[in-house]
Design a protein that fits this description.
232 residues, alpha+beta, 6-stranded antiparallel beta sheet, 8 helices, globular
Length: 232
Amino acid sequence: MDSPRWLPLESNPEVMTKFVSCLGMKPSWQFGDVYGLDPELLSLVPRPVCAVLLLFPVTEKYEAFKQEEEERLKGQGHGVSPDIYFIKQTIGNACGTIGLIHAVANNQAHLQFEPNSPLKKFLEQTAKMTPEERATFLEKDESIRVTHESSAQEGQTEAPSLDEKVNLHFIAFVNVGGQLYELDGRKPFPVVHGKTTEDTLLEDAVEVCKVFMARDPQEVRFTIIALSKDSF
């Protein structure tokens, strides 16, 4: 049986904020663009930041690195906190929604939800599940699928067809227990990138984003989005 496919979500902060808002997250935190990586431009991003999303091209270089990283981490153990909420991606083109779930699920202490929030309900129902069980549960969650589809149609660029090959991918960076985690539903487990704090999460995540960019110096299709407390 083929795995389900969704329309890809555009890397548009307004679309993302509306998406989580439609699923019942209160708008006290909002997504916004990070316009550059130098300190002056990073200083323009409202604080605090509780999650960072990176959209990047999946190239041959990246796939080779991903394979090598997986083998290396499997061999040495990956020391992941049990407090991390991680979901595997089994739905084609759903990486935007997976990234948003990772950003929100690992910041529930900061974020607020409406009483009947479909997103909060999804997180509560899947709290004790494995990453694979969460993925299967998401496949059957109509409220999230429908909101994803309408959000995918709302971007500034025309949404590609369901079958079109999309080689851009979203991942999330979060701080759990003072560690910076990279959460990518295509990987078998979260990746730890060292220590971080609530105050330095953006700068620490951007350092990892720079490594992604350096791996493919010819590429320009990188977008960084921050989930911040203030309105952009």
